[in-house]
Amino acid sequence: MKAKKKWYDYLWIFSLTYLILGFVNILFALLGMICFIAPLVISIGWGNKAYCNKFCGRGQLFSMLGGHFGLSRKKDMPKWMKSKYFRYGFLIFFFTMFFIMLWNTYLVFAGQRPLGQKIKLLWTFKVPWQWAYHGTIFSDGVAQFAFGFYSIMLTSTILGFLTMILFKPRSWCVYCPMGTMTQLICKAKHVTKSQTDAK
Amino acid sequence: MKRKAIVDTSMCAACGCCVKVCPMGAISVPHGVNAVIDETLCIGCGKCAKECPASIITLEEANHES
Predict the structure, then answer these.
(1) For labelling, which of A76, A128, A131, B48 has a CA lying 20 to 30 Å from the CA of A151?
(2) Helix (H, G, I), strand (E, B) or coil at A138
């Protein structure tokens, strides 16, 4: 018995295209903002995790590569990895790095630092990426943000891909910072709602 | 022997992987908090337990009355 596929079951195509476009022109990286804004809007506005549950293209991609293509060992992940300490810790780490990236972007905007045409993988390794930069009609800061944002997207894809191979296909979902954050938002909303309902 | 899927809600990330594989549509993630299994619909096939990336769904023998 197979459920009929809905339009949103094909959003993995968006995620895959996004990753490829970052190799073509770095400015496409800005589209990745959708993957940050949409889950937040859905969780804050509707108080649910429909983004993770239905729309997340990355999850679909991992599920396909790990499941149908058999790239996953399908083993249980270690206990510490699914613990709240690790999940919340990774969320804090991820957003600290995100804000450092924003700060670096600001420095380029302010003209205090030249545009670095590099991608930083796993927050450590600088990879030359000038071949995906063909100038910008915007400020250099916008291009810097694109490089920084794509670094984050590629880094998290690599981490997700590694844990997909080692553990279950969608292992990334367990420690995905966006997923953890939207779950926290949903929990907070649900608790406050049930408190006001009880009054 | 009737088996039913049980979620360890304290560890659930509410990702919804289980929802997608359930052939009975017995699982939902109400309010985005954690997965909830409708025991009356669950047939104990174990697909959700296999899919769960955190491996926190287990199959347990259900009470006789259900």
Answers:
(1) A76
(2) coil
Interchain CB distance below 8 Å, B55 and A47:
no
Averaged pLDDT, B14-22 = 96
Angle, in degrees to the nearest 10, between helices A33-46 and A177-198? 10
Phi, psi of A72 (to 5 degrees): -105, 145
A162-to-A7, A149, A169 alpha-carbon distances in Å: 28, 20, 10
In a domain, B9, yes or no: yes
Q: Report the candidate in B61, B18, B19, B22 with the shortest Cα–Cα distance to residue B42.
A: B22
Does some domain include residue B66? no
Q: Residue ranges of the domains in chain A? A: 8-198
Q: Do B53 and A190 touch (CB under 8 A)?
A: no
CA distance B43 to chain A (A): 14
For residue range A136-186, list pLDDT tens digits in order.
788 899 999 999 999 999 999 999 999 999 999 999 999 999 999 999 999
- Cα R_g (chain A), whole angstroms: 18
Residues in chain B: 66
Cβ distance of B17 and A182 shorter than 8 Å: no
On whether the CB atoms of residues A92 and A125 are closer than 8 A, the answer is no
Give the ipTM of the model, two decimals please. 0.90
The number of distinct structural domains making up chain B is 1
Distance between CA atoms of A115 and A140, rounded to whole angstroms?
A: 6
